[in-house]
Amino acid sequence: MSDRAEDFFAPVRSSLAGIVGLSLLGAVTGVVPFVAVVELARTLLPALDGGAVDERRVWAIVVIAVAALFVGFAAAFTSAMVAHLVDARLQLSLRQRIVRHLQRLPLGWFDTRTSGTVRKLVENDVTALHQLVAHAIQDVVTAIAVPVICTVYLFTVQWQLALAALLPLVFAMVLYVLMMRGGVEKYRQYESAIERLSGATVEFVHGIAVVKRFGQLGRSHRRYRDETRDYVHFIGQWTRDSAAWFSVVEMVTSPVVVLVYLVAVGAWLVSAGTAEPIDVLPGLLLGLGLTGPVVKLGTSGQFLRNATKAQQSLAGFLALPPVPQAASPRVPAGHDVDVEDVSFGYDEEHRVLHDIAVACRPGTVTALVGASGSGKSTLAKLVPRFYDVSQGRVSIGDADVREISSPELYRSVGFVFQDVQLLRTSLRDNIRLSRPDATDDEVERAARAAQIHDRILRFDRGYDAVVGDDANLSGGEAQRVTIARALLADPPILVLDEATAFADPDSEAAIQAALSALAAERTVLVIAHRLHTIVGVDQILVLDGGRGVERGSHTELVAAGGRFARMWADYQANHARSRPEGVHG
Ligand SMILES: Nc1ncnc2c1ncn2[C@@H]1O[C@H](COP(=O)(O)OP(=O)(O)OP(=O)(O)O)[C@@H](O)[C@H]1O
C-alpha cells in the first residue's frame, strides 16, 4: 500500500486496531470450548474405572467454557458492530474528501469525464473498501489466529498427532499455490474480457437506434455476440483448468476425509504405544477446524485485491493537482477581458491555440468564429479557467485569471457551454442554483429574459415541477433554463456558446434580443456557429487552426475580402432564407 493509500485509514486507525484485537479475542475464545471438552473428558475418564472425579475441576472447566462462549459471542458481536461503525465513518470521510477534491479540480477535468467516472469513485471504490473494513479484516484475523492457536495447543498435547493434523493444511496450501499459478495474469485477462464485453453491450444498446436506421444491426450485434462468445470461452477454459485443482483441495480439506485420516493416524499412534487414547481427542476436535478458516482466506483475498485496486484508483484521483490558487489573490479592477499572446495545448506535444490576442471591453460583444476544431471553445474556456494557458495570459480587469480566487472568478464570469446540466430538483431550484438567495420574483425575471417562463407555466406545478419527474424538457428548453440560471447570477462577464443560446429557432429572435440587452452592460464572448447571428457584434475574431487570422467588425471583415468575407459568402449561399437580426453590442 502506498503512503497515500494508508492515509485513507488515518482517521480510523485506532478503531481498526480495536477490530483486530476483538477478532483475536473472538478467535481465542472460540477455541476454548473445544479445549474444555478435551479437558472435561480427561477429568471424567477415571470415573469409567470407578475412580474419583475431581468435581471442582469439572465445574471450573464448565464455567470457563461457558464464559468463553459468552465472551466469544460478545467479541464477535462487538467487532462486527465496531467494524460497521468504523466503515461508515471511513466512507463518510472518504466521500467528503472526494467531494472536496472534486470542487478544487480544474473545470476542464470534467470536460473529458462522464458522471460514470465520478460515480465509480464515490460508489464502487468506496464500497470496495467497505468489504475490506467491515468483513475482510475479521475474516483474515480469524483465518490466521484459529489455526495458530489450535496448532500450538495440539503440540502441547501430542506433537506427533499435531504434525499429522497440520499435513492436510500444508497439502491444501501447496495445492492452492499451484492452482493460483499465473492467477494474476488470468485475473487481468478476466477483467479485460469483462471490460470488452460491457463495452460491446453498451455500444449495442446505445447505438441501437442508429444501427437500425442504417441497417447495421447485424454488424453491431456481431461484435456483441463475438465478445460474449469469447467471454464464455475464456471462463469455460479457466474453470476447466482450475476445476480439477479445486476438487482436490475440496476433497483434502473436507471434514469427512480429515476425520477419517486423523482417526487412522490416532489409532496407529495408540496401537504403537506413542499416544494415550485420550490424546487423540484434541486432534480430532481441533484438527478438523484447522483447514476451514484457511480456505476462507481465498474469498477474503478477492476482497483485498478489489480493495487494493479501489485504493489505487482513489489515490490516483486524490493525487490529481487542484487548480493552483494564488497566495495573495487579486480582485479584478473592472471587467475588461484581455487575451494576451496566448498559446495553449491539452498536452505537451499538441498546441491547440497559438499566440492569440484579443481585447474584450465591457458593453461589447466579441464573437469567435472559425471552422470546427479551430479552437473557439478552447479559447472561451480559458476565461473561466477550465484550463490554464501554456503561454501568455488571460486577464480580467488587469488581473491574471490565475491570480483571482476561484469564488471571485466564478462570480465575475458566467458561462453557458453545450453540455447542459440540470439537477433532479424543481425548475425554480435549478435556476436558483447560481444564486440561492434569489427571490421568486428574481427567478421569474431571469426565466422571462431567457424565454422559458411561459413554458414553465405550462407544467401543472409550474416552477415547482421537478426535472425528469413532471418536467420533461426538450434540449432547447433545458438550454434556456441554464441561460436563466446564468442570467440570475448576473455576472459582469458572460461566455456563451451560440449553439446553446440559440438552439431553438422559435425563440431565437427573442433570446437574441434578451442577450443583446444583457450585452449593454457586460463583456460578452460568444462562440458563433451561424454567422447571421453575429452580424451586429462589436468585433469578430476569426480562428483558423488555433491562430487568430482576422479581427474586426462584420462590415470591416467583409470589406477586407479575406477569410471571413469568404466564409460569409459561403454562408449566405447556403443559408439564403431570411433570419432574425443578430446580437448587438
Ligand atoms: N478536452 C480535450 N482534450 C484534448 N483535445 C481537445 C479537447 N477538447 C478539444 N480538443 C481538441 O482541440 C482542438 C480545438 O477544439 P475546440 O473544441 O476548441 O474547437 P471548436 O472550434 O470549438 O470546434 P467546434 O466548433 O466543433 O466546437 C480540436 O483539435 C480538438 O480535438
From TrEMBL:
Gene3D superfamilies, per database record: ABC transporter type 1, transmembrane domain (1.20.1560.10), P-loop containing nucleotide triphosphate hydrolases (3.40.50.300)
PROSITE patterns, per the entry: ABC_TM1F, ABC_TRANSPORTER_1, ABC_TRANSPORTER_2
Residue stretches spanning the membrane: 12-38, 58-86, 161-179, 243-268
Membrane topology (UniProt): Multi-pass membrane protein
GO cellular component terms listed in the entry, alphabetical order: plasma membrane
Residue ranges of every copy of the ABC transmembrane type-1 domain listed in the record: 17-306
Residues annotated as domain ABC transporter: 337-570
UniProt entry keywords in alphabetical sequence: ATP-binding, Cell inner membrane, Cell membrane, Membrane, Nucleotide-binding, Transmembrane, Transmembrane helix, Transport
Record Pfam families: ABC_membrane (PF00664), ABC_tran (PF00005)
Flavoprotein as UniProt keyword: no
Molecular-function GO terms, alphabetical: ABC-type transporter activity; ATP binding; ATP hydrolysis activity; ATPase-coupled lipid transmembrane transporter activity
Name of protein: ABC transporter ATP-binding protein
Species whose genome carries this gene: Phytohabitans suffuscus
